[in-house]
Design brief:
The protein is of the alpha+beta class. 25% of the residues lie in helices and 30% in strands. The structure holds zinc ion (2 copies).
Amino acid sequence: MNCYCGNQQPFEECCDLIISGVNVAVSPEQIMRSRYSAYATKNAAYIYQTYASSSKKEQSIQEIQSWAEETQWLKLTIKHSDYIKNIDNSVDKELLLPTVEFCALYIHNKTFYQMSEVSRFTLENHQWRYADGDIAEHIEISHPKRNEPCLCQSNKKFKHCCSSKLA
Ligand SMILES: [Zn+2]
Ligand SMILES: [Zn+2]
């Protein structure tokens, strides 16, 4: 099974290595993917930990946790990510922060939602952190017909897949 983030590796060999601290995320995209997988696995502590310190004070682990509990994250698509070779390259704070543009699909209250965001990331103590983001689109989307492919990453028919999560 692919990682929650959509990479064709198991979670244990992908985002879990970063979430558990075995590996350090070497790019904004990797920290973005690991945060998405942390939402999918309802790991609020990690999501909180990977906010930039300037954003942490507006966050509460409990609120993140209850939001993660209420949602099922189905699919992540990375549309664009700034290429940054590795975290030893100094990033000039005066320059624009590197961004990752993504689209995510999730279920909340038995409804599919699609959210597109351009997220900004910053380095703190050689670790990538999520600074903030601009939501480009956040819409409710109608579910497929029973025999159509599901909207998630399963390649199954809708009736054999996420339809049960909407019942
Ligand atoms: Zn992953
Ligand atoms: Zn599905």
